[in-house]
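Let us practice reading a record.
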Amino acid sequence: MKTHLILTAAAAALALSGCGDKKETPAETTTVAGGETAVPATPAASPPAMLASSTIAANLAASPDHKSLAAAVTQAGLVQTLSGAGPFTLFAPNDAAFVQVPPVTRDGRMRPAQKDVLAGVLKYHVVPGKLTAADLSAKIAEGGGKAVLKTADGQDLTATKSGDAILLTSASGNKATVTQADVGQANGVVHVIDAVLVPKM
């Protein structure tokens, strides 16, 4: 009887161990698949939080990688705009991008007195219309290696290619790379970027 119990316990332990192996395999596969994109971790983490049936504003609020951007959109009073019909193309800095902004600048722009300045910075990340990565690449090719996009704040944003990646250069000269393209939204498309773009002030 004891032997039977020991064998049963051993079989259960092996079964649980096998389940553990099965759980690890998809994570490894995801990492390998993600390794083929610009940022391995992002494709696994972001898409579940962003639903193609939801608006840009709703998806930003739900995204674990865009808490800073969602807070800034709320502070700037742009939730209603990004909940509208659009369509919009949003170049969305992730939380790591906001960390690169000096705290004095980042915190200062979140003050109520700086609402208009903050709104201007955020509108600089929005291009009216829906531009997929393929659309951007086509515009870059048509422009002989660069495409000049007109943002929602009326300033120019330049898109070029760096290998297979899309590189954005702001009016003030700082750069950001698209790390995850074509995240579908009900009212447009989001491209995740690794830096906050700075317009001319």
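A brief commentary: The CA atoms of residues 17 and 71 lie 42 Å apart.
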